[in-house]
Write a structure and sequence with these properties.
binds magnesium ion, 9 helices, binds 3-methylbut-3-enyl trihydrogen diphosphate, Undecaprenyl pyrophosphate synthetase, six-stranded parallel beta sheet, 14% strand, alpha/beta, globular, 249 residues
Length: 249
């Protein structure tokens, strides 16, 4: 039985988020430049997108560049931005053909114009895709997003659009960049680190975490299915007891 056949299609994580880490170390281990690792990382994205469609996952959010990544050497940032333009432009037709719709989250005002343009074109071209929503977190960080939401909530309170006493958890969710998305059910991090690196802090309040030593360029369909199977072996209790969860079924 293949890993894919072992997946219980009635208990799929509907939203999977991935911290794609380990490109640099993958390259270093092979005596290559870090940029080679990033290039190989794009191939891994293609494989995982195909696997997500095949498994009927509804939303896949990929952490591609954090606001902290702006502190990397200029040469690496420039290379990454060029790679994004190249990959987004090259993949748009296939994404469209495969029914993938693209969205982005993050502080896009900091991105070079060429990246924003490539991204906007891709979002427009793929807007009718119904098989998978692929969300790219670009120049994203959770603390940036929460500060941004706070500024907008405060501004709406001042304008009288919102009452302070009406601010609930649901209100905060509506002011986040992920307002149209369900919370991730499964968060995968490749590359061996066991940290969240400023990614979807609010949204991952009840996500299941899956860490793997595999560097992102080596992550493939099988690795993705393995993570889903691991997720399916867990019991999500949301604060309740096992007995309550069993009797709720
Ligand atoms: C992840 O790989 C890609 C980005 C953060 C852009 P890294 O570049 O962080 O690779 P390591 O962690 O140095 O191996
Ligand atoms: C997290 O990877 C960000 C992305 C994968 C885009 P980093 O490599 O930047 O994470 P830290 O800084 O080591 O935690
Ligand atoms: Mg890293």
């Amino acid at each position: 039985m293949s890993l894919f056949e072992k997946i219980d299609h009635h208990r799929l994580p509907s939203h999977i988020a991935i911290i794609m880490d380990g490109n640099g170390r993958w390259a270093k281990a092979r005596g290559l430049e870090r940029a080679e690792g990033h290039r190989e990382g794009v191939s891994a994205i293609r494989k995982v997108v195909e696997a997500a469609i095949r498994a009927s996952v509804q939303t896949l959010t990929l952490y591609a560049f954090s606001t902290e990544n702006w502190y990397r050497p200029a040469e690496e940032i420039d290379g990454l931005m060029d790679l994004m333009v190249y990959a987004i432009t090259k993949e748009t037709a296939d994404l469209k053909k495969n029914g993938v719709s693209i969205a982005s989250i993050g502080d896009t005002s900091r991105l070079p114009v060429k990246v924003r343009e490539a991204l906007d074109t891709c979002i427009r071209e793929t807007q009718d895709g119904r098989n998978l929503k692929l969300v790219i977190a670009l120049s994203y960080s959770s603390k940036w997003e929460l500060a941004e939401a706070t500024r907008r909530i405060t501004s709406d309170v001042i304008k009288g659009i919102l009452k302070t006493e009406d601010i609930s958890e649901e209100t905060i969710g509506r002011y986040l960049t992920t307002s149209k998305l369900s919370d991730p059910d499964l968060l995968i991090r490749t590359g061996g680190e066991q940290r969240i690196s400023n990614f979807l802090l609010w949204q991952c309040a009840y996500a299941e975490f899956y860490f793997t030593e595999t560097f992102w360029p080596d992550f493939d369909e099988e690795a993705f299915y393995k993570a889903i199977l691991d997720y399916q072996g867990r019991q999500r209790r949301y604060g309740k007891t096992s007995e309550q969860i069993e009797s709720d079924k």
